[in-house]
Amino acid sequence: MHKPVISIRADGNAKIGLGHIYRTISLAGYLKDHFEIQFYIYQPDDLVKKLITEHRFFLITVNQKEDASEFTALLPKGSIVLLDGYNFNIEYQQKIKNDGYRLVILDDLNSETQIADVVINHGYTGNLKDYKISDHTALYTGLDYLIVKPEIISASFTDKRFGNKKILVCMGGTDPDNHSGFIVKELLIKTEKQIKLVTSVLNPKIDELKLLADQHSDRLNLYTGLNASEMISLTQLCDIAILQPSNIALESACLGIYILLFQTAENQLYIKDTLIKKQCATKLNKENLVETINSISTENINAQLKKQQQNFDRQSPARILSVFKALLIDVAKVSE
Fold first, then answer.
1. Where in the chain are the domains?
2. pLDDT tens-digit profile of 8-63?
3. What is the pTM of this model?
4. Architecture, CATH, for domain 5-146+315-335
């Protein structure tokens, strides 16, 4: 018997970033035992092709980025459609709905009304009445619907630290404004911390960062191309993490590490607010960077780890699977 299909529409590449691709791959990992997963991506580059195929998901190329008609013409009948991105406006959504497909949206911004059957925003913990959705849309928000790599969910939580000297820095794979360089130089000059810097070869300042690591090899280690297992091990090795309030922060909180959040984009606001409100992270600014880091004690670290353990129950895959199975029942009712 064939599995029902989930058709995922998301875009990403080395230039614009891979956040939506990584997140939908993680979600697909929750669902793959019960659904056939198909990715529909606009002009995927070699890196995206590798990411999708190494997870053994189907990849279909979309030639028109914002043309819903082309997309729906490619869809298997009865599939559930998942959108993750900022180009899928209400007209795009309406076309999918008009053609008879159940629709799920992964949202970060709450910037315009969504008309999908389901909206998931794992960073939002505000007033549900303030969310811009249609009357028939089911809304699932907060850490109960956390979307992180399945390897993170199954990894052990590190509930105690005995030091405050090792700092993990990860400001994204591309980091076009070179926040990594600024933070690392401040740490090298004004603290005595040991620094583990994670980025990717796509970073436009990678050669500069490599030189910096060579010049300070006693205190600075540079890592690129880490897989999930390697990133988990590195996180568990460190005491403190300076991170963007994006999925990397959610994954780190799920593992257990003291988190300082350095916001670099608007779409990170909800995750930042949620983690700070739940005392699972602390805000970090350029102006108080060194002062904040030097003030963190082992007691501070372990108190935050306790809050993280209380708020991340690792049951989100089962909850999200239930959401999609319920949609499958709705599809069956419509087709009868």
1. 5-146+315-335, 152-311
2. 999 998 778 889 999 999 999 999 999 999 999 999 999 999 999 999 999 999 99
3. 0.94
4. 3-Layer(aba) Sandwich (3.40)
Shared fold status for 5-146+315-335 and 152-311? yes
* pLDDT greater than 80 at residue 199: yes
Return the structure tokens found at 77.
Answer: 């009948």
HEC readout, the chain: CCCCEEEEEECCECCCECHHHHHHHHHHHHHCCCCEEEEEEECCCHHHHHHHHHCCCEEEEECCCCCHHHHHHHCCCCCEEEEECCCCCHHHHHHHHHCCCEEEEECCCCCCCECCCEEEECCCCCCHHHCCECCCCEEEECHHHCCCCHHHHHCCCCCCCCCCCEEEEECCCCCCCCHHHHHHHHHHHHCCCEEEEEECCCCCCHHHHHHHHHHCCCCEEEEECCCHHHHHHHHHHCCEEEECCCHHHHHHHHHCCEEEECCCCHHHHHHHHHHHHCCCCEECCCCCHHHHHHCCCHHHHHHHHHHHHHHCCCCHHHHHHHHHHHHHHHHHHHHC
Q: Any idea which residue has 């990849």 for tokens?
A: 59
Look at domain 152-311 and name its CATH class.
alpha beta
Give 106-139 pLDDT, tens digit per residue.
999 999 999 999 999 999 999 999 999 999 999 9
Nearest 5°: the CA angle 200, 205, 209 is 80
